[in-house]
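Hi team,

Filling in the usual template for the complex we talked about on Friday. All components are listed, including any nucleic acid strands or ligand strings, so the model treats them as one assembly.

SUBMITTER: L.P.
PURPOSE: interface mapping
COMPONENTS: four
RESIDUES: 458
SEQUENCES:
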Amino acid sequence: MSANATRPLDHEVLAAVLRVRDGVLEVMLWQRALPPAAGRWALPGGALGPDEDVASCVRRHLADKVDVAQLSHLEQLAVFSDPHRVPGRRVVATAFLGLVPTDVDPSVPADTGWHAADNPPPTAFDHDAIVRRGRDRLRAKLSYTNLGFALAPSTFTISGLREIYAAALGYDVAATNMQRVLTRRGVLTPTGEASAPGRAGGRPAALYRFTDRSLRVTDPFAVLRPPRR
Amino acid sequence: MSANATRPLDHEVLAAVLRVRDGVLEVMLWQRALPPAAGRWALPGGALGPDEDVASCVRRHLADKVDVAQLSHLEQLAVFSDPHRVPGRRVVATAFLGLVPTDVDPSVPADTGWHAADNPPPTAFDHDAIVRRGRDRLRAKLSYTNLGFALAPSTFTISGLREIYAAALGYDVAATNMQRVLTRRGVLTPTGEASAPGRAGGRPAALYRFTDRSLRVTDPFAVLRPPRR
DNA sequence: ATAGTTATCGACTATAAGGCGAAAACTGGC
DNA sequence: GCCAGTTTTCGCCTTATAGTCGATAACTAT
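RESULT (copied from the run log):
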């Protein structure tokens, strides 16, 4: 037996696209104009088409909101399948996690904006739970993979990277050891260049880049864990 | 628009249920008697019902093959959605990873058996890829979570635990430090009891148990990583 | 008793992390 | 130009964890 006659089974994809801006981890949401859940904020996404897999599908729907080429990372998050997650319909959602680096600023439609991932505005359906899952997945992976490359610009200073990690993780990280630890493990490579100092002066910071911009699992970075006491 | 009229969209759940037996990581498969893919081996699972989420669904279908209460762990793995993953139908699968401890031996139907997860017999559809994903997820999580509790019996010796980890990971692990490292981190707790020695003699081994049988993320266990050289 | 077997412990070495203060390299005001 | 202020980077020291090896404990079988 295939889809129930009285209540057809639909499948949609949704994407929690995250970025760090001004020290805040943000998620992309658009405001629904029409019922159901008019006025509430929703994740980008849409129905799974007959001839595509979920990865193609999420890229296709994201293209309505943002230049997909500016996404530095996209991965499956989880399936959300509560029979009542969308009132009046039976729709299973495959959620994705997308990341945008700090040095690109994708233009988005008028109904779409960026909101603090820790405190989003009222969302449609279960989209708040999906945002939480995406945020938690990012935080977990930051400490045992090199996923930071997807949030950081192509070259950056140590203190700039520290700010990105602190914003994404939601707590301050000790910057002193970050260069040493990440460099020793081969995650960071110095470019040899230096950044211009800010207007307050200070020594110019050396620029680094991620050695490997493909996702790799590493030992966890103790420097990224919360302080013990 | 809901499901395409000419090619209805179905959703199924599948479970890669793994266990360690005699030093081998095994997966539960049943042999299909009827087309399509008659004679090939398949993962347990079935269609998503109209009033259940995927977690309830996978437990319901697993109950046909095994006593679900004997599963020590069950988690979402990934969505498999290639439009041609099942010939002639459009069916999206949510795959789960299940684990069975070494000290229970669930009875299974006649068409169902356990096969080496590293080298399964010819499978139906994309079930071999799902087995690989489940195996890889287990291996990754063994080294940064306490998921070992789900494979091990309720109490065990250090060398017994070493064998389980070695079988699941596919490579030998250094046993010398395992007790010290896992105990220091609070993952293992001595029960105070000792096991009877084997027939060849030897000092009786102390029995341990996992301190916390709920899944917790820990620092990775360096003792579980492959040797450096 | 004694040889064989397995488990556990202690001592030592090596590696990595964390903290702190000094030094380096800049800006802007005087 | 000099000096105060700012930010980054480096070096040294302490602590924590991992890895190795050999010694010792606790058993079985003959």
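MY TAKE: Confidence is low (pLDDT under 50) at residues 223-229 of chain A. The CA atoms of residues 145 and 218 of chain A lie 5 Å apart.

Thanks, L.
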